[in-house]
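Quick one: sequence plus flavin-adenine dinucleotide SMILES, need structure tokens.
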Amino acid sequence: MPASSELIDDLRSVEGARLWVDAPMAPFTTIGTGGKADLLVTVADTTTAVGTLRVLEDHGVPWICLGAGTDLLFADEGYEGVVVKLADSFHYVEGMPAPSVGMEDGAAVERVTVTVGAGTLLARFAALAAEAGLSGLEFACGIPGSVGGGVATNAGAYGSSMAEVVEEIELATASGVSWTKVADLEWDYRLCRLPAGALVTAVRLTLTRGEAAAILECHRSILRQRRSAQPRGVRTFGCTFKNPTGGGAGRLIEAAGLKGVRRGGAEVSRVHANFLVNLGDATTADMLALMSLMRAEVERTSDVSLEPEVRLLGTHFPWEASTAGPQEPPDSDG
Ligand SMILES: Cc1cc2nc3c(=O)[nH]c(=O)nc-3n(C[C@H](O)[C@H](O)[C@H](O)COP(=O)(O)OP(=O)(O)OC[C@H]3O[C@@H](n4cnc5c(N)ncnc54)[C@H](O)[C@@H]3O)c2cc1C
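Reply:
Sure thing.
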């Protein structure tokens, strides 16, 4: 259903909000498929974010926050709701110390608190921390999302995740802006349950002083591992399914013989079977057809039910369609 003219007028009256009616979502995601959102609103600062969320609450329309779009799949039919995006002014880092000259032997562990805007790219932030000799974010050096998206998805790799380094989160809701302690939020594998109607605007993390050279070498080693294990230079949303307890989803999909299988313009990566690739003209329907196949074949061959890691908006996963009601926005997005 298209956005009402009253909603559009009310959003236009929020200072610092920029609107795009019928906004195509494919260019805003790394997979590059899907239809349009009724509205895309870019917010310039936290005051604008609060004003925007207030209008959305008053009108009772569904909305989601778009980060870097590296973990999102929009339905081909589009998303009947509002997509809120943080403007470039949310790309900032405060409190980053000058590059370290190294630690003396026996020196006490020194913790450093850094504040980062939620729009900042996580990998860029991890690189800045490494150059400053701050340890703790090495796991994030190859994760392509934003800091806000990293919190909402509890992004992680190599046994660490955001939950371990984040201390406080600045949240904007229709009622205002406030900082929430990480212990007051519920974290799970690839999920942080944010309060309903909240979007992350900034994050405070505690990192540990270390040797910049050693931290940078750790980054290089992780990036080398990623380059050899994951497809490069392709359109993808990273891992399609969460790893089940005790094993990798990719190994199960590969064991089911699905590497290289195609549906339309989508392919199960030949490099890493848990990655789907848009070969150029894929649709979200192609992606969902492959996801259904992967899930069914892994269930048949390994007796494991895979759970999606990618967030789907505007429709249901095919295997949920017969039982689910209308789709609610995910918890983390209001
Ligand atoms: C090549 C590749 C490799 C990847 N490797 C990894 C990996 O190793 N580990 C891993 O965990 N993930 C990985 N991912 C997935 C993805 O990068 C992460 O999940 C990332 O944290 C998502 O951030 P984003 O900004 O792109 O969020 P989006 O994809 O834009 O959104 C994802 C979810 O976060 C919510 N969200 C985004 N920003 C905010 C905000 N400011 N406030 C509230 N909610 C918000 C959205 O509403 C949505 O529910 C990979 C993806 C790709 C393409």
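Helices lie at 5-12, 46-59, 122-131, 147-152, 212-229, 249-255, 284-302. The first strand starts at residue 17 and ends at 24.
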